[in-house]
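Morning F.,

Quick status update on the modeling queue. The single chain you submitted on Monday has been processed. Sequence for confirmation:
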Amino acid sequence: MSWMILLASAVLEAVWATALGLSDGFSRPLPTLVFTVTATLSMVGLGLAVKRIPLGTAYAVWVGIGAALTVGWAMATGVEPASPLKLLFTAGIVGCAAGLKLLPPTADSEQPATHAVRPASPAETPHV
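Structure tokens below.
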């Protein structure tokens, strides 16, 4: 479920990035509202996802997918020119993000974040 939340948050990142560009420096109300709502939801989703996915991995996937969707949308709508190299490098971003998901879980990943305190050993206990 954490990965689905992270993916949805990455999609929202692309929406808020696109709305940011359309807001004309926050002077256009509708794109500014879309930016505000989707940026907030995207951050909340990222925050929920990092409860179970390591922060570095979650952030890299969030940024990578969001960036690839943003540039893909810009090319599809004609805001940015498309080129074979741009498509190749964008596919590389997506491939790297997918690769992070495909890595085998470690002892710390996909587990609730806990901060257990290890009791001091007798050798570490100060003698008074």
